[in-house]
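For the sake of transparency, this paper describes our internal protein records without simplification. Such a record has a labelled line for the sequence and another for the backbone structure tokens. Nothing more is needed to write down the fold, since each code stands for a local backbone conformation. For reference, a complete record is included directly beneath this paragraph.
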Amino acid sequence: MAATIATEAPASAAKPWYRVLYVQVLIAILLGALVGWLWPTLATNDWIKALGDGFIKLIKMVIAPIIFCTVVSGISHIQDAKKVGRIGVKALIYFEIVSTFALMIGLIVGNVVRPGHGFGGSMANAQAVAGYAKQAEAQKSVDFFLHIIPDTVVGAFAQGEILQVLLFSILFGFALMGLGERGHTIRAFIDDAAHAIFGVIAIVMKVAPIGAFGAMAFTIGKFGTGAILNLIGLIATFYVTAALFVFVVLGVIARIVGFSILKFLAYIKDELLIVLGTSSSESALPSLMEKLERLGCSKSVVGLVVPTGYSFNLDGTNIYMTLATLFIAQALGFDLTFGQQLTILLVAMLTSKGASGITGAGFITLAATLAVVDPRLVPGMAILLGIDKFMSECRALTNLCGNGVACVVVSWWEGELNKEKLHANLNKQVDPSDVETALTTG
């Protein structure tokens, strides 16, 4: 494999700059922001919006089948059934520890910086929050666990429910493992299907710049720069806090495992820019999984940790919830006690999982958290309504970084991280839009 990597590096380096995916996406984001600022009427046209929505739909189209193929292939090739459970337990332990750090950092920064102190926010949009609050109340813990079980297998795939697809994939993988040699044909078919789907992803990624342009142009055109300027303090605090978490907390974890967080971020820069343009971490999920396998993580760990992390390891959402809760309380003149702030930690741990898979999950989980801490804080969400779109980008970026690092850590913890491939890949550039490269290295 090392020889393959060595021969691919010159080809990747020789590619003209204008054909490199992350360069194309970055240019598209800048052009989209410019169009949205200068021609807001044009930017809010349905066809411009459709460019971003269409790209996200193309990615979501392949998420369910790639999770199914990856998880089933990973489990069915494992001889020891206990190993699957061991990986799952390690992943959940890691998720809870790191999520706690994310929540605590949000609380600490919120108490030190106090971004909502002296804020004279308008409550004119309070009624717009009602829908989010109702969704948050409806999503109880019991409903969340029952929702994991699909009504039908076909329905889970059709609706793109990640946890439901994951559950069926795990069960199917165990069943295929139990067949032994009789399941060889099915295993080979699923392995080949996974390569084909990765090929589809590589083709779809070629239109990522178009999707990023449309999404960014529509966002700036619709919300303008006024919403950002009005609450620039909170946005800046949130972005700095998220950066602090990524570079300090995840950086220390990465150093313990034996790699640089800066090199890792450079390795997934394509995915980060796509998420920045689309404000959706799901848009980078398939290519992230493919890149993590190429990085030296075992297929079984990638297949279990990454999809699960998208529901149980939402570091960016956790930071947002604690920081936003304190901001609203400070803006409305409430001084939260130590007990109430401790409640934020405990409640946010649950609500961040309970609202996974719901549209606008970050805002909905905030409503659920505020309702438990102090119902009088819920109307204060109207202050954040205008800028939530901009903050969702930071949430998605942080979630993506957290899940990528989590997969490497669990692979290392399980003793299935290929250090040679890890360092070889972190020191070179690979364009995931290259179909041939994706198929030969995936």
